[in-house]
């Protein structure tokens, strides 16, 4: 067969890139054609995404496919979850979308509690309670800027917004919409009773479409900028974790995954939602996946802790590379102190190393002094959190995995991958690194009939990319330290 080419636009919370995928009928190969920083903009005390700049960068990636002679036949966009834009009746964006870390949603959960309680929301949506969920952000908009909401005609999550900018067509893709506590998890449709209780206008909510839906060709004005291309824009599994899970190279029905990046999303894949008192107690989420599967998972703070610490040290004039930070951590003594990675004090940007030291001081532990000690504390705490989460998943689902699949950019972190195997006492299969872009491309292949189903798509991943395996080491020492970690969390 002739080689098929597609473009995946993969937008993360700190960077974006365009990746051209080529499929020869058996294997998928990747070529990055564009990369850019995705930095929030703080304006008048509020944190926003610079979506106009991001859209410019998306067009640069498409333009490069034209200049490079890559005859792509489709384009798919995936992004982080929960955030959105409001558009008026003419289709004009009313404001730059807020960043999910913006402080306007502090205390919003108790504010929304006047309309419905947390248990009612969870019982319907099955979504982990986090103050930046879409339903809470919309409630904050209605409280703080009612005129903007009054003028709004539609709400589009970020990937849906860019699909609209490219094609002029609006739709709400299922996997990205499912992240924000707006959907009835059982019905896979809007939780209209909850939405009504929150006072959110029903007119904001458009048709829900599945991954692989054809959105159309590029608008003439977009083609005038990027060059002539016949590529069609498709919805993919538009939430980046939904795309990453598609790329887990497993044949097993029961497995654990960690989509490792700014966030660590740890969970498993189910056919139906799991919503009960126990899953609510442990704050597990039921997000939509490909083919109406459910990603039953826990959001863990992830490599944000390292990334934001590095930014702080850079602000102080010490520009460490990630490799240097790993080397310094390796040189530090093990198991001296731990943090709870999901403690609320670590959510906001700023001096994160100081907050790590403060947490350790408050909990009566050794207070890390050096850069290496802070980084080691974060790494070990993440690995312990993965163990704790794996144990809870086993308790809630009965799944006892033989291996943990780690996918995404965090697979480059060899030190953390080995720690994960050590802490959990389970082998780790790390890879593919570009899982999100690969999952994006696989949906495009399925839409074109080149991959017949999810099992076929995962077989393509296994044939195309070689993972790295880590076997557990020094488990007795980790077992002892785990008791200390659990006492703190």
Strand content: 15-25%
Going by CATH, the homologous superfamily of the largest domain would be ATPase, nucleotide binding domain
Kindly provide the name of the CATH class of the largest domain.
Alpha Beta
The share of residues in helices is 25-40%
- How far apart the termini lie comes to 55 Å
Number of strands: 21
Mean pLDDT: 96
Q: Major sheet, described briefly? A: 7 strands, mixed
Strand order of the largest sheet: 17-18-16-15-19-20-21
Specify the structural class. Answer: alpha/beta
Molecular structure report:
- The strands form six sheets. Strands 17-18-16-15-19-20-21 form a seven-stranded mixed beta sheet, sandwiched between helices. Strands 3-2-1-6-14-13 form a six-stranded mixed beta sheet, with helices on both faces.
- The chain has 19 helices and 21 strands.
- The chain folds into two domains: 4-234, Nucleotidyltransferase, domain 5 (2-Layer Sandwich), CATH 3.30.420.40; 248-431 and 452-489, Nucleotidyltransferase, domain 5, CATH 3.30.420.
- Helix 10 packs across helix 17, helix 13 packs across helix 15 and helix 15 (371-397) crosses helix 16.
- The chain has 489 residues and is an alpha/beta fold.
- The radius of gyration is 22 Å and the shape is globular.
């Amino acid at each position: 067969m002739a080689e098929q080419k597609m473009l995946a636009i993969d937008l993360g919370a700190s960077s974006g890139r365009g990746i051209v995928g080529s499929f020869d009928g058996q294997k998928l190969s990747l070529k990055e054609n564009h990369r850019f920083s995705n930095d929030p903009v703080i304006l008048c005390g509020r944190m926003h995404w610079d979506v106009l700049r991001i859209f410019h960068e998306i067009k640069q990636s498409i333009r490069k496919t034209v200049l490079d002679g890559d005859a792509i036949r489709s384009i798919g966009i995936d992004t982080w979850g929960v955030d959105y834009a409001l558009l008026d009746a003419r289709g004009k964006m009313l404001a730059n979308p807020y960043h999910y870390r913006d402080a306007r949603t502090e205390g919003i959960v108790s504010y929304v509690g006047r309309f419905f309680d947390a248990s009612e929301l969870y019982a319907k949506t099955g979504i982990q309670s986090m103050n930046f969920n879409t339903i809470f952000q919309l409630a904050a908009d209605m409280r703080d800027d009612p005129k903007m909401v009054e003028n709004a005609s539609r709400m589009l999550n970020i990937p849906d917004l860019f699909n609209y900018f490219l094609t002029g067509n609006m739709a709400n893709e299922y996997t990205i919409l499912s992240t924000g506590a707006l959907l009835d998890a059982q019905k896979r449709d809007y939780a209209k009773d909850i939405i009504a209780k929150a006072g959110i206008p029903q007119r904001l909510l458009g048709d829900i479409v599945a991954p692989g839906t054809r959105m159309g060709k590029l608008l003439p004005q977009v083609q005038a900028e990027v060059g002539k291309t016949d590529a069609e824009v498709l919805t993919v599994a538009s939430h980046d974790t939904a795309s990453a899970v598609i790329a887990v190279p497993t044949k097993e029905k029961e497995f654990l995954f960690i989509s490792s990046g700014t966030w660590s999303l740890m969970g498993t894949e189910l056919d139906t939602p799991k919503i009960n008192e126990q899953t609510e107690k442990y704050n597990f989420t039921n997000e939509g996946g490909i083919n109406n599967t459910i990603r039953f998972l826990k959001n863990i703070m992830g490599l944000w802790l390292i990334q934001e610490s590095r930014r702080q040290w850079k602000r102080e004039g010490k520009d460490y590379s990630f490799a240097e930070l790993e080397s310094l951590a390796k040189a530090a003594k093990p198991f001296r102190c731990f943090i709870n990675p999901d403690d609320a004090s670590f959510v906001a940007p700023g001096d994160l190393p100081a907050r790590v030291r403060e947490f350790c001081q408050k909990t009566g532990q050794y207070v890390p002094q050096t850069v290496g000690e802070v980084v080691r504390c974060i790494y070990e705490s993440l690995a312990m959190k993965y163990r704790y989460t794996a144990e809870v998943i086993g308790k809630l689902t009965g799944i006892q995995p033989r291996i943990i699949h780690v996918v995404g950019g965090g697979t480059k972190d060899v030190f953390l991958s080995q720690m994960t195997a050590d802490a959990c006492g389970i082998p780790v299969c790390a890879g593919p690194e570009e899982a999100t872009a690969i999952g994006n491309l696989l949906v495009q292949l399925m839409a074109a009939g080149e991959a017949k189903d999810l099992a076929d798509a995962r077989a393509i991943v296994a044939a195309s990319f070689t993972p790295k395996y880590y076997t557990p080491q020094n488990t007795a020492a980790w077992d002892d330290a785990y008791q200390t970690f659990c006492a703190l969390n």
